[in-house]
Amino acid sequence: MKIAVIGGGHGCHAAAADLADQGHEVRFWRRDQAALSTIKKAGAIRLIDARGERSVPLHLVTADIGAALDGADLIVAPLPATALEGLATVIAPHMRDGQVLFIPPGTLSAIPMARIIRQQGNQAEISFVESGTLPYLARLRAADAVAISVRATRLPSGTYPARLSEHALALASAAFPSIEPVSDALDAALMNAGPIIHPPLILMNAGPLQHFDAWDIHNEGTQPAIRAVTDALDEERVALREALGYGGPHFPLKDNYDDARPEWMYGNGSHVKLTDSNDWREHIDLRSHRYMREDVAMGLALLVSLADWAGVPCPVGKGLLAMGGAICGEDFRQGSRSWEGLGLDQLDRAGLSGMLQNGEA
Q: For the CA atoms of 61, 67, 70, 71, what is the dihedral angle to 10 degrees?
């Protein structure tokens, strides 16, 4: 299959290398030509995983977005949600009927991205697939080398608009066989693990993160008190899903930490593999890191504001959202990814269901 991988982060490099290693025709696009130069010169990415290290050739390495998207069946953009609306502006002139854009996870970015593409005059019938997490736990080791510690074994994913699910999920599943279909993009967005696991980890580890040069929030930063808050926040997420009519499995985060429970998105033993890799011992700037800007300011704001709309209590989520806003000196509850910021607060339940199924007029 012809696949365009868009972006320059850890997940983007992992996707380009892994999908090419599977035999797909991968076009890798990054805006920053200087950062892309090492891979472009080699025509390959070095992939490091449980099988060892190997050089994986790519079909095309380019800073020309038109060339990357031309003829691509599937476009994979494992970018932070903070970057996706800007990406929509870049890709809008080049999208064609039938193309599928996979944004794992998207934090419900499919809706503003679709609006932007339409506003730029592109009326092509394209579909968006959002998932509950990234397909990989990965970190760059060098400009042309990426290490994949864990691959997702269960990847709940939904389509916007949902009427295009059969086509969209068939293409996405050909690249990511671990995909498990869910009903729509909001169903998938409410599987997103980032706004559940990362806010307690960074906010309750704020002291060590600001004191030490590097700190592993997933290792010594994951203590019983923090796990208790994570579990309580996750219970609020599940209660919201149930109130909106979404059935199980809900992929509770407890499953990630206990192999005796049902298999979570990354499979049994994934948390140990993550901490053993030592790749997450890093410096985290609380004001700018994606865990704050994507998972708190966007993902948690979406959860809290949607819970308000649905009349579902979310006290832990509200408290964490307020803490993040206090650290950054902003009111995250009023952000662009809140239910009001998305312009969805005026919909009733039937209107929301229709929009998720058919898209916006």
A: -40
Per residue in 260-299, pLDDT tens? 888 888 877 666 666 666 776 789 999 999 999 999 999 9
3-state SS assignment for residue 16? helix
Distance CA 29, CA 241 (A): 36
Element holding 155 (H helix, E strand) = strand 155-160
Fold classification of 194-358 (topology level): N-(1-d-carboxylethyl)-l-norvaline Dehydrogenase; domain 2 (1.10.1040)
Q: What is the CATH number of domain 2-185?
A: 3.40.50.720
Please name the residue that has the structure tokens 């929301």: 352
Residues composing the chain: 361
* pLDDT one-digit tens code per residue, 12-65: 999 999 999 999 999 999 999 888 999 999 999 999 999 999 999 999 999 999
Residue 316: C-alpha distances to residues 68, 202, 292 (Å)? 43, 15, 16
Region of 349 please: left (phi>0), alpha (psi -120 to 50) or beta: alpha
Closest-CA residue to 359 (of 148, 123, 47): 123
